[in-house]
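anyone else get weird line breaks when pasting these?? whatever heres mine. first is seq + C-alpha cells for prot A
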Amino acid sequence: EAKLEDLEVEDCIKTQAEFLNIVAENAKILPILINDFTYNDCIELADLLNSIDKQICVIASCDFVHYGSDYNFIPFVHSKKDNVNDLDMKLINHVLKMDSKEFYNMQEKIPICGTAPLIICIEFCRYFGIKKGILLRHYLSGDVNNDYDNCVGYASILFR
C-alpha cells in the first residue's frame, strides 16, 4: 500500500488528504483530477459516484476568481477588492443555491480553478436531498498579503 508522501500527487489532493488524515484516520481516498470537461461529464461522474455501494464523502477543491495580469483577467482597474469580492459572491451564490449549471456558465467567462469538482460535489449532494450550501468563510488572497493587483478568491462551503 503506497503512502501519500511516496506518491507524486497534485497539491489540492495533498491538502485534502492531509486534512482527512487528521479528521478521519485510515480513511480510504479515491483522488479524482479533472481537466478537460463538459457540464454533462460532471453530471455523469456524479451519477457514477452515487452508484458506489459504500458510504462516501465527497470533498471538492475550487479556487474562485483569479484576478490580475498573472491570470490574464483584468476586467476592472478600480475598486479591485470590492469588484473581485462581488464576482466571487455571484459565483458563490450559485453554489449556495446548488445551481451548478449557472455556476458552470459563469466560469466560462471568469478564470477559476476546480469548477468540475465543485459541480460534481453539488450534483452528488442532490442525491441525498441536500438543497443548499452554507458559506462558512470567504476571503481573497489579497486580504492576507495585501496585494489586490493579482489575487484569488477562496471560500469554504458546507453542503448538508
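and prot B, same format (seq, then C-alpha cells)
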Amino acid sequence: MVQVRQPFLDILRGVAVLWMTAFHFAFDLNHFGFIHQDFYRDIVWTGQRTCILSLFLFCAGFGQAMAVEAGQDWRRFWKRWMQIALCAVAVSAGSALMFPNSWIYFGVLHGMAAMLIVCRLTAAWGHWLWLAGAGAMLLAWLAPQIHAALPMASILDTKVLNWVGLISHKPVTEDYVPVLPWLGVMWWGMATGQLVISRGWINRPVKVFGHLPAAPQLAWMGRWSLTWYMVHQPVLMGVLTVVSTLR
C-alpha cells in the first residue's frame, strides 16, 4: 500500500515554497519602491512564476495519484479541499483590500480547488491523462485563434467564464491561474505519479531528494505549504511596511 505522505514530494513542495517566498519578497520590494522591475512582462519574472506554479500543480497531481492508490476516500478529500477553498476566499478578501482594482478572484488556490476535483474524477483515465494534459495546454494556446475565428467567443473573456482560460487577453488581477492550461500540468503530475507507482519506483526518489542540502527543512516547509502560503505575504508586507515608513 502506497503512503499518501511521501518525503520526496514534501521536499519538492518545499523547494517550490522557498522559491515562491523569494519571488514574492522581490515582488514586495518592487511594490514598496526598493527595486524597479516589471513583474508582469519581464520574462525573468514571468518565467519564474510559471516554473513555481508548475511545480506546485505537478506535486498536487502526483499527490492525488498517491491518495487514490492509498485508498483515500472522498470524505478526506473534501476535508482538505475545504481548507484550500476557504483559504482562496481569504486571499480574495485580503487582495481586495490591498489591490481593489486588481483583486484576486481566481488565483492559484481558486484554480487548485477547481482542478483537484477534476483530477480526482479523472484518476481512472490512466495513460490517457498524458494526452488530456497535452490537450489542455494546446487548447489554451489556441485560444487567440478561437477568438479570431468566433466573435461570439468574446464571452469567454468575461469574469463569469475567464476562469476557464480560453481568453484573448489576460484580465487585470494580481494572480490568475485558470483551469486551462494549468489543469494539464496537474494531469501530468497525476500521470507521473501513477507511472511511478505502477513501476514500483516510489522509493527511488527518496534516494535522490533525501541527499539534498537542507532536505529535512524543505520537507517541513512542504508539509506546511498551505499555511506558509497564507502567512508569508502578510508577514513580508508587514515588515516592509515598517521599513518603508522608517526609511
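btw re prot B: The chain is about 70% helix and 0% strand. The mean pLDDT is 92.
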